Amino acid sequence: MHTQPLASRDASQNGCSDPKAPARPELRLTQEALETLMEETATRAATAAINHFVASRRYRTTSSSDSFTRDYG
User: Could you tell me which residues belong to the region Disordered (predicted)?
Assistant: First the structure.
């Protein structure tokens, strides 16, 4: 399958034979969906990392008698 590079030219000028014609609309939709999925995945990963960090700090701080005292000897 031959894929064509994205360009800002009108595809109706030369049809599909123009190598600089925009990609097919369904491919562009796929690209947009992929970018959205990547953004959502990055957001979920960051949220999970923050939640894990907060939960681990909460566990360490509440395991001692004073909730603000941690491993200070």
Answer: 1-26
- Cβ atoms within 10 Å, residue 21: 19
As a whole number of angstroms, the distance between CA 56 and CA 44 comes to 18
Mean pLDDT of 7-18: 52
- Among 7, 29, 34, smallest CA distance to 20 is for 7
Please answer whether residues 20 and 9 qualify as being in contact, where contact means their C-beta atoms are separated by less than 8 angstroms. Answer: yes
Contacts of 67 (CB under 8 A, 6+ apart): 61
Name which of 52, 47, 18, 49 is nearest 6 in CA terms: 18
Residue 6 has pLDDT above 70, yes or no: no
Q: Is there a contact between 4 and 19 (Cβ–Cβ < 8 Å)?
A: yes
